[in-house]
Amino acid sequence: MADNLVGRLRLPAELRHPLFWICALLYLFSCVNRYWANWHLPASINSHLGDLLNLPLELTLVLWVMRRFYFRQPSFVLPVSWIVATWLVDALWFELLMPYFKPSMTADWLDVVAYALGGLVFWRWMNRPART
Asked: Is the pLDDT score of 104 beyond 70?
């Protein structure tokens, strides 16, 4: 059985997390719906699903990069201050600055709440030391 694993590509632990895959698939579904399929879903799903999934996806990729290329420690977890800072930067960028410079975008305080909930999901269930 070990012979079958020789030469196989194995994803890093962060990218094998079931919640990462659920978030990625839901985000893909959201993008397909928004730009191609245009299924008639409730407004809350159309408007806030991508924002909810943004921080878990973004922070998982940051965690992977920091573990592999900077700290080189599989036990490294992102400090809460980094999660809060990412939430703050995303909220300010997408809900304050971008609508100011691009009038087709709208600022929505519920998006800021969705970013925060996504950050909580990442902090609670995804920001754990890697299992090898």
From this structure: yes
